[in-house]
Amino acid sequence: MNDDILKVLYSKQDIDAIIKRLAGEISRDYAGKNPLVVCILKGAIMFMTDLVRELDEYVELDFMDVSSYGNATESSGEVKVIKDLDTSVAGRDVLIVEDIVDTGRTLSYLIKIFKTRDAKSIKVCTLMDKPDRRIKTVEADYVGTQVPNEFVVGYGLDYAERYRNLPYIGVLKPEIYQN
Q1: pTM score, two decimals?
Q2: How far is CA 91 from CA 58, 112, 121, 123, 141, in A?
Q3: pLDDT tens digits along 50-98
Q4: Which helix (H) or strand (E) holds 54?
Q5: Any catalytic annotation for residue 99?
Q6: CATH classification of 12-150 is 3.40.50.2020, yes or no?
Q7: Structural domain boundaries in the chain
Q8: Which one is catalytic: 50, 93, 99, 102?
Q9: What is the side-by-side order of every strand in the sheet holding 5-10?
Q10: N or C: which end of the chain has fewer CB within 10 A?
């Protein structure tokens, strides 16, 4: 599986440093608020798990599975909820945790949903931001790092459900997904 990687963008040590920085910012901003942390499955699970372990405040966790990719490398443009939240967001401070903000379609959709469900506040934390691909005008409140317009995998991110378990984030060789 490592042979399928063109180059490593962020090592496990790089990711750990990013998470510590983000956790400090989030802990400060949410002091005494008990936010509902919403992990967007499956890609953000590794990031969310490591992030919440670094937070100094009480948090509640919930999970949502949303897809616009399937097994493709390009968004279909249609956002589909596969698994909804078990917890009400009404009156809650919500922190959406994403692996990557790419086109912005999924994030725009989620923010709209949580607003209609009367969330008190909605903020977004993303490990990676890919602004060159943005179609919808959305910005994350907490950004780990920006990534180039390349197909990245690892640390939760996949191609056709593979590579999620890599401990780093790397660029997938084009011949892997072009075949």
Answers
A1: 0.92
A2: 17, 15, 8, 14, 19
A3: 999 999 989 999 999 987 655 555 555 678 899 999 999 999 999 999 9
A4: helix 45-54
A5: no
A6: yes
A7: 12-150
A8: 102
A9: 5-10, 169-172, 152-153
A10: C
